[in-house]
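Quick question: who can interpret this fold?

. . .
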Amino acid sequence: MDIIRAALYIRVSTEEQAREGYSVEAQRDNLKRYAKNKGYSVVGVYADEGITARKKYTNRKELMRMLDDVEAGKIDIILFIKLDRWFRSVGDYYKIQEILDRNKVDWVTTTEHYDTTTANGRLYINIRLAVAQDESDRTSERIKFVFDKKVMDGEAIWGNAPFGYKIVNKKLEKDEKEEVFVNECFEKYKIFRSVNALTNYMNQKYNKKMSYSTYRNIVKINLDYYKGIYKNNKNFFPPYITEEDYQEIQAINKASRNRYGGKTYNYIFVGLLRCANCGLIMGSAGHSLNPKNGYIYRYYKCRRSSFSICGNKLRMEERKIENYLLDHLEDEIRKYKVTYEIEKEQPTKRPVTTKHNIEKKINRLRKIYLAEVIELEDYKKEYLELQKQLEAVEKEIANAVKFEEKDFTELDKLLRSDFKEMYDKLDNLEKRALWQSVIKAIYVKDAKIVKIEFK
């Protein structure tokens, strides 16, 4: 008679092990004793540790390894101590049972008795699985209730706090050792708009060896935490960032997903360059490879010039634009600010002056009339004429183009940062995001930059 080949299956969740003593060792001893008493040959021990029975069965690595051995014909019978070690879901139970039936593999619980050969036996199994599933649901609900209450009370629910925080008396507080560092992470991220650039810059400046994923967790994955939010508690953490910061960083992250999610282009200044001759946005105009150093030269050109509609025919090379911006950005910003202040006063300066002069004349006319120097008819005639002029000037002021107020905060932040040191470490998409964050348009004529308009 052939010896029956037995697989020993063990499953224990961390909570069950602590609560009910279903340790891996206890289960293994029980199963080995049973196999020995029955004369079975143990061909494998399959132990899923720290795994709940409600977890999707395909995520149980040892169970899946055992099923591979079942399909390979290496197992005749599977032993486990109780049905709830096997499954608590009726649906999953029958999916696995199909595999076992197809390969003529039986199962036995060592501490319970089940009969799968009769209708009553199968019904009993269904009932026990349904009861086990219900118990699991109730336990999950109780755990969730306790968990939710802790969250609403602001009680720390982790053993390790997120970076930049520490746990004191079960509450989360900012870690004063990392507070300056975390604040700078957010400030620099708003400038660089790149986790890769942020990682390089911060590690270099603070002599750290933190991974890309750690920085990504701070500015992307766990951004809610640093705003103070966890689940339904908006004040769970002491916040590092304001609502304004939060919205700005979310917008940067959304733009990043859009840039990398679809078709990508390697031209840095797409959408920023304008022909100073006709005003049209300049498009990419091909590229060339330098075989000696492997550098790719990328060009831009006014599209209308190709049809002889515009005389701005020369191509502008991308690196020439980059070098100009890096060398002259501070001067360009200063020049732009001065021009802005001058232009800000120009649209309404003359009409306002004229209005004041007319109002003075009306006041003077009124005084002359009251002094009985002129007659009423002359006063009315002169008054109506001045009033007509005043209405015309007021209309001119009302129709004047209102000058757009500008906030130079972001430009000033960029100048104060060390972005030039990090610039060469950015890829072209990250460089594009940087320039688009501060520049509205770059006007080009005859392969020269003639004007830069900032946001």
In short: The first strand starts at residue 5 and ends at 12.
